[in-house]
TrEMBL record:
<protein>
    <submittedName>
        <fullName>Pur operon repressor</fullName>
    </submittedName>
</protein>
<comment type="similarity">
    <text>Belongs to the purine/pyrimidine phosphoribosyltransferase family. PurR subfamily.</text>
</comment>
<dbReference type="InterPro" id="IPR036390">
    <property type="entry name" value="WH_DNA-bd_sf"/>
</dbReference>
<keyword id="KW-0805">Transcription regulation</keyword>
<keyword id="KW-0804">Transcription</keyword>
<feature type="domain" description="Bacterial purine repressor N-terminal">
    <location>
        <begin position="5"/>
        <end position="74"/>
    </location>
</feature>
<dbReference type="Pfam" id="PF09182">
    <property type="entry name" value="PuR_N"/>
</dbReference>
<dbReference type="Pfam" id="PF00156">
    <property type="entry name" value="Pribosyltran"/>
</dbReference>
<dbReference type="InterPro" id="IPR010078">
    <property type="entry name" value="PurR_Bsub"/>
</dbReference>
<comment type="subunit">
    <text>Homodimer.</text>
</comment>
<dbReference type="InterPro" id="IPR000836">
    <property type="entry name" value="PRTase_dom"/>
</dbReference>
<dbReference type="InterPro" id="IPR015265">
    <property type="entry name" value="PuR_N"/>
</dbReference>
<dbReference type="InterPro" id="IPR050118">
    <property type="entry name" value="Pur/Pyrimidine_PRTase"/>
</dbReference>
<keyword id="KW-0238">DNA-binding</keyword>
<dbReference type="InterPro" id="IPR029057">
    <property type="entry name" value="PRTase-like"/>
</dbReference>
<dbReference type="InterPro" id="IPR036388">
    <property type="entry name" value="WH-like_DNA-bd_sf"/>
</dbReference>
<feature type="domain" description="Phosphoribosyltransferase">
    <location>
        <begin position="110"/>
        <end position="241"/>
    </location>
</feature>
């Protein structure tokens, strides 16, 4: 690459880091890329680190040693996240989003790139210090949330299917009881999709009693995998404690009340904001 002026190098380095989250980049790689001394690169990284932290963009971690370098972790400050979730909650409270059974229509919002980018960064912030190899979700509405989170954590996504596809090859299938409907359903995951003993972050769009997520957890046992965390976009508060199948999870929003007659809902920020 041609030698750049420092101002241009700072811009290019910033872009390089932003598009490679959770990736260790050595000083040597930067020095070779820009034809600059490591001392100059270190000074540039110090400037970028300061701006990232002051503007709430993320954290820039330095790892010492011969195999060291820098790693960018996208981080959303709590106050910024709370403001975003208040806006999302207000949008979700629109009366025409009420579905039979107390569910929410969210498909249109889960197709908006700006919202997905915010939610993905929020989940990535919540789980940034955990050892995660892959993100798991179940088709279909959880898929965009899983990929948005994966983009910030720079890890792959595996998708649990409701039925096995021929193109997926051999698969592991289990029956599970839906926590809300009490019906027995089936989910499957291709054997090639997930390595054994992986650390898995489960992401889902909506949780009522938690039956679907518990099903994914049971499916992970078949792969000797570990649940590194569970993230839920919206949880329903209209569930008795003894009916909830899941205790350890992070939610970004909570549906606390639904009046089916008036189509009125109350949605507040989830348990992530309680601490």
């Amino acid at each position: 690459m041609k030698k750049l002026k420092r101002s241009a190098r700072l811009v290019e380095m910033t872009q390089y880091l932003l598009t490679r989250p959770h990736t260790l980049i050595s000083l040597t790689a930067f020095a070779d890329r820009y034809g600059s001394a490591k001392s100059s690169i270190s000074e540039d990284l110090a400037i970028i680190k300061e701006v990232f932290e002051e503007e709430g963009i993320g954290e820039l971690h330095t790892l010492a040693g011969a195999a060291g370098g820098v790693k960018f972790k996208p981080v959303m400050p709590k106050h910024t996240a709370l403001a975003i979730m208040h806006d999302i909650c207000a949008r979700l409270e629109q009366p025409d989003r009420v579905l039979p059974g107390g569910y929410l229509y969210m498909t249109d919002m889960l197709g908006q790139p700006d919202l997905l980018a915010d939610v993905g960064k929020l989940f990535a912030t919540a789980f940034r210090d955990r050892q995660i190899d892959v993100i798991m979700t179940v088709e279909t509405k959880g898929i965009p949330l899983a990929y948005a989170t994966a983009a910030c954590l720079n890890i792959p996504v595996v998708i649990v299917r409701r039925d096995n596809k021929v193109t997926e090859g051999s698969a592991v299938s289990i029956n599970y009881v839906s926590g809300s409907t009490k019906r027995i359903q089936t989910m499957s995951l291709a054997r090639r999709a997930l390595k054994e003993r992986s650390n898995v972050l489960i992401i889902d769009d909506f949780m009522k009693a938690g039956g679907t997520i518990q099903g994914m957890i049971d499916l992970l046992y078949e792969f000797n995998a570990t649940v590194a965390g569970v993230g839920v976009f919206v949880e329903s508060g209209d569930v008795e404690r003894e009916e909830r199948l899941l205790e350890d999870y992070i939610s970004l929003a909570k549906l606390t009340a639904v009046d089916m007659k008036t189509k009125q809902m109350n949605i507040v920020p989830g348990n992530y904001f309680n601490s």
